[in-house]
Automatic annotation (TrEMBL):
InterPro entries: Homeodomain-like_sf, Transposase_14, WH-like_DNA-bd_sf. Gene3D superfamilies: Winged helix-like DNA-binding domain superfamily/Winged helix DNA-binding domain. Residues 5-114 form the Transposase Synechocystis PCC domain. It comes from uncultured Synechococcales cyanobacterium. This is Transposase.
Amino acid sequence: MPAPYSYDLRDKAIKAVKGGERKSDVCRMLNISRNTLDLWLKREAQTGDYQAITHFQMGYQHKITDWKRFEEFVQKHGGKTQREMAKLWGDNVTQQNISDALRKLELSRKKRLTDMLSGTNSNGRSLKSD
């Protein structure tokens, strides 16, 4: 996301418009769009200031929010695949949500269910010793 314009630039633009300069001339002089200047003027009229908006949410909100409960759940059901864990957890949680939560907690995950079920490794060799 691009950085917001500096407060100095905003201040110069607003003061120039209030000083009688035409909006289009101010925009051309400061190399900003007319829409940007209009938004700053609108924000000043509403809030009394034209400071950049901060502290907005970046990213997404996790579906799993009770991390202690999830850690206990993983300890209990750690032998299951992520898909099976998602079904057990409920709350419309997907396999990807389980994967993201495990990564956030820096926990490992089961990688190959089929090898464990069939008794072979990725080379097709038996996991059982003869």
